[in-house]
Every structure is written in structure tokens, then in C-alpha cells.
Write a structure and sequence with these properties.
With 410 residues, the protein is of the alpha/beta class. It contains ten helices and 13 strands. It is 33% helix and 13% strand. The strands form four sheets. The protein has a seven-stranded mixed β-sheet, with helices on both faces. Strands 1-12 form a two-stranded parallel ribbon. Helix 2 packs across helix 7.
Amino acid sequence: RKVKKGAAGRGCGGGTRTRALGDMGVGTERLVNFSAGPACVYEDVLVKAQEDLLNFEKNGLSVMEMSHRGKAFTRIIEEAEADLRELLGVPDEYSVLFMQGGATAQFAAVPYNLGWSDDVTDVGFRPRADYLTTGSWSKKALAEAKKVGVDANVVATGDNKSIPLDAAAWDVNADSGKKSKYFHVCANETIQGVELKGLSPRSVLDEAAGGIYQGVPLVADMSSNFCSKPVKVSDYGVIYAGAQKNVGPAGVTIVIVRKDLLGKVREGTPTMLDWTIMDENSSLYNTPPCFSIYMCGLVFKKLLRLGGLEQVEQINKKKCGLIYDAIKQSQGYFACPVDLKARSAMNVPFTIPESEDLEKKFIREAELQGLINLKGHRSVGGMRASIYNAMPMEDVEKLVAFMKDFQAKN
């Protein structure tokens, strides 16, 4: 597909907050949504989507009604891709795919597309792939690869508090006789709140065990920190991410794949997991999640207007810094279980160590203040504030003020 950049004027307007909804007939104010996903969306993006809902740019149809092969939607998906390429600096030798099934579907798609590149017909062969497991989602990816038939080697397992990036301590299984087909990481564990930060995973791989991973594609699940900061795309063979946290509503999964990795999919791979077919058909093999792609396009334009991912990263650092500082200043009343170097800018878990009952009270009273979805994941407990790109600074400040007030009263 020939990608065209969209006109700068199209898309949602400026970044003005529209908290009161009385004019929209809702009769209340919007809640502050700390959900891990689906998550809050920029309000001016929602307003633009509302304007387009019945009649997209005077086409007489909603985006939800128009043909995915018509001129209007062709422009939508081409602009979305062009803007994403600009945001991330995606090189020309990479394809951008808009797929379905969430990141979970990619847990299987990755091994199907990469594992059997030497002989796509030898379906009985068990190719080796390496996994760095740092939390719940990387463990789910590992389990799915095993189902597909991969001989998955776990180089290290995190403790839900840190990232084991000391390659000298990894179990690289150098005596297996198999060269790894790919190395998989989860860039940000939504549930545990641990994030790969600072050190490039690619540089770690290149220095590991005398070059055992030289040339091995690095694959990253970036679902919960996608487009939250700049990324050197060329360090990766594949990046994939569900959209429903940072760049739009649920329904679309973005896959960025180096083109030389295409065309080597295992025989018998389900069509909807085949990156080559999706690439050859410009993500339009079947009806795509049109409205979700449209919404992502609006978000990409918003991020560009904000100044790109360098500026977005600085905003995100300030937001998470407010919460982490509040935890520190509480002098032990609140606690964050994650090591300082691995603390996520997107998902901030915290507890009240002295009392689970106080945690329940905190969540209950926060909801009364319009601060919702702060309950931690059922496997972890405590509280968790997910503060993705669209979470306004003022709403993080509301949470911090509530934390301080709650501590003073309890």
C-alpha cells in the first residue's frame, strides 16, 4: 500500500478538557478512569468521534457503516499508518499491520510466523525460541508458544518486582544444538507494574553469552506502553500491541514486522494469524475493525500535535512521578512493591501494608470521589493506577490529593 500523510488540519481539535457533560445531555461529570484497559481516551478525540459518528466528513455515513474498501476508509487507514510511522520513526523496511484478536492472538502468531522459517512444511519440528518472563503476560505468551509446538527456553523469570536483565545470569541453554528463532520480551507488565526501561534489550542480547543471540529477532509485546515514549524500532524484528490502553479502543492490534521476516509462515497457519497474508492485503483481507482503526488514527494525530513521543514521554514521567513521590512521602503508609529501576510509567501498583481492610476502604471511598478502577488485579491485590497517555495531569493530581487526605483520616 502506498501510504500518504494526512492533512494536518484533519482529526480532533486542541487539547482542551471538557469535563462537564451537561451540554451533551449526560447530566454529570466524567469519571476519572484508572482502568488497565480498556482505558481512558483523550476527551477531544472522543468529541471529534462524536461529531463524525452520524456523518463522517459529509460522506453521509458513519465510519461504522462505510465499506472498508471505499475511498473514505482507505484514506483513514492510510493516514493512520502514515501518522504511526511518523510517531515511531518506523523504517521503510518494516510493515505495519492492523490485526484483530488482541495481543493474545499474537502470542500464537509470533511462533507461527517466525518459528519454522527454515522449513515451513516440517510441522513436526519443534523450533527453539527464548523467553524472558517478567510477569503475567509474558508467561501467557510463553504458554501459547508451547501449545503451538515451540521448544521454548526461559532464560530468566522475574520476581514480579524487577527485570532480570543481567545476561550473564541467563540460562541460554547453549548446548541445545538449536539456534533460537526469536527472543520474546514483554516491554511493560500491566498487572505487576514492571517496565523495561533504560537499557536496550537489543544491546543486552548482543552481549549475551558470546553472541549466541546475534541476528536473532527481538520480539516485544508493547501493549501497555505502546506510543508512550520513543522506541528504536530497528532494534526489533517484531513489535505488537493491543490498542486499548494508549492509542484507542479495544478491537485492533498493531503489528510492526521487519519485511525480511515475512513469507516464512508455518504450513497450516490460520489465515488470520498469517502476517504475510495481512501484509499482502494491506490489513484488508477481511473486514477490519474499522471504527477502532479510525479512533487510533485520531489518537496518532493528537500525539503528533502534542509534539511527538518525546513530549509524551516527559508528560508521562511527570504523571507517574507524582504518584511515586506521594507513596514515598507517606513514610510507609503506602508502599510500591516494584523495584525503583523497573517501576512502570503506565501502571502504578501500591498497597497499604498495614491493612487489607484499609485498602478496601480506600477503593470504596475513591469511587465515591469519582476515582474508579483502582482495585489491583485479582492475582496481585492492593491498588493499581493505570495512567496511560490520555490520563490528564489534573486527574493524577486528584488521586494524589485523595491519597494524602485518606492517610490523614485513617
